[in-house]
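Exercise 3.2. Students should predict the tertiary structure of the chain below and write it as structure tokens, then compare their answer with the key that follows.

Predict this chain's 3D structure.
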Amino acid sequence: MTCKLRAEFLLGIIAIAIPVAGANSLDESGAQSSSVQNTVTSTQHIDFAPGRTIHIDGSYGILHVEGWDRPEVGITVTKSLPRGYERKHPEKAAQYLESIRVTAERRTNSELAISTTKSDLGMEYEIQVPRNSSLTIHHRVGYVSVSGVNGNIEATCRRGDLVLWLSEKASYAIDARSNVGTVASDLPGTFAVRYLIGQRYSRVDPSPSRRIFLRTYFGGITIQPILPESEAPIVAGR
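Answer key:
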């Protein structure tokens, strides 16, 4: 599949995705200045050593996860009311935004869980994690991108797109599958079509140092190499 077709497919999936949800309380700031706010942004930082596991469960909407060199996790969440809600229910708008929370909880010394409860808010997450972390992501609906993370990655999405940026220097065992949609990668590997509407990509290097497991029921999966000169992805619109 050409880059142009892949881009058109991804844009089509994103256009029909329904970004939703929210949960722990984060200090809230950055709300739009109006008589009734319809957007609020919150940020927190949690000390968390490299080489451990981070679980992201129940997220909705747009989720960006990036690796960095700090021994902490940074979580920035922007919540938006459904279109027109603040006009129809001005007395409930602030309470509704406050009621949907994103929680960050240590399960053990080596595991951190970031959870979101279901709602119809628009959600956007910017999460920074130690570069050598392992990730387990269970996203409901929307878009997920992961870059600069060097541990094992498991990511699933019910409806929407998964995009991973991986270093070409590592060895991998990759299992990626879309039930209804395409899987695209510029990394070496094997592609197979499933029931004419789905696609699978796999790669198993000798003695793989990293394991990547990706699943989406309806949507696309893209796996791309990070450019060696920058070791960072170039993402359109960011």
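Discussion points: Residues 1-11, 13-34, 230-238 have pLDDT under 50 and may be disordered. The CA atoms of residues 165 and 224 lie 5 Å apart.
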